Amino acid sequence: MRYRTLGGLRVSAVGLGTMPLSIEGRPDEARALATVHAALDAGVTLLDTADSYHLPGDGPGHNERLVARALATYGGGRADVLVATKGGRGRPADGSWTVNGSPRHLKAAAEASLKRLGLEAIGLYQLHKPDPAVPFEDSVGALRDLLDAGTIRLAGISNTTAGQIRRAHAILGDRLVCVQNQYSPAVRDSEPELRLCAELGLAFLPWSPLGGISRSSLDGPAGPSGDGTADGSRERFGAFHAVAREHGVSPQQVCLAWLSRRSPTVIPIPGASRPRTARDSAGAADLVLSAEDLARLGP
Q: Is the distance from CB of 287 to CB of 255 less than 8 angstroms?
């Protein structure tokens, strides 16, 4: 496993997004725990969760409790594992994703997450999404208060613009350590945010990093192309499959290795719901792509 820096901490160059273990289509608990354990065995030290990762209408925290059980039952070392969770979103019974960025809600959510995770302090706490009904500075101010109180050790923001990153950085300074936005071969809207993170020294955690290569946990059934989309992504991103065949690895590994080469601050957090998938993703940290490979994969 190779490593990168997040808030002064050394973490694995590929993390694990644990969301698929708790939402629709989730595996049984035995396989879910085995999936987390497989990632840890492969050297993963960054686990990404959120209080809203649960089935629609259920109470918050299913995924956080699952992560806590996975760590408690893991037979290997876990002192270096950084658990990153998020607050500010909800999942009502209709299956939608709500947003609540009020300081009162975020502070209560963080305290509840801390209790579910069973930690002395949350290693990394992230604002899940800016709330248009709440001034952004107020939501970030709640993160500052949680840092000051010792409830959380590091802070991050997710689903944000470059302007919001600068505003959060002005409030939190070097205690803002990461940005988590969607970014993949198919979705590159966050190029400005990726460049800004490199400029400010913030880790960039792409969520749904395999878009265009395989389906994310929130995608519907596979489309006509067989890869989860109806627009022929397999054809659009065929170079990832060709390079994978030449290296004898999966296209997903190539995708994650390509993402890591986008910037030294990138730490992909692919989801997994099977141990073999978690192991495969972790293997991307050691996959070396040549200049010729990168040229074929495109900018």
A: no
Tell me the C-alpha distance between 123 and 40, whole Å.
Answer: 17
Enclosing H/E stretch for 114 = helix 103-117
Instruction: Quote the CA–CA distance of 257 and 243 in Å, as a whole number.
Output: 11
- Report the sign of the C-alpha dihedral through residues 76, 270, 68, 204, in that order: positive
pTM of the complete model = 0.92
Active site residues: 53
Q: What does DSSP say about strands 98-99 and 89-90: parallel, antiparallel, or unpaired? A: antiparallel
Tokens of 201: 């020294």
Tell me, rounded to whole angstroms, the distance of Cα 134 from its chain centroid: 24
Alpha-carbon distance values, 194 to 9, 68, 271 (Å)? 20, 31, 20
Is beta strand 3-6 parallel, antiparallel or unpaired with respect to 9-12? antiparallel
CA–CA separation, 114 and 93 (whole Å): 25
Residue 298 has pLDDT above 90, yes or no: no
Q: Which residue has the tokens 């350590």?
A: 177
For 102-127, the pLDDT digits (tens) are 999 999 999 999 999 999 999 999 99
Provide the β-strand partners of residue 12.
3
- 90: β partners: 98
Spatial distance between the Cα atoms of 135 and 158, rounded to a whole number of angstroms? 16
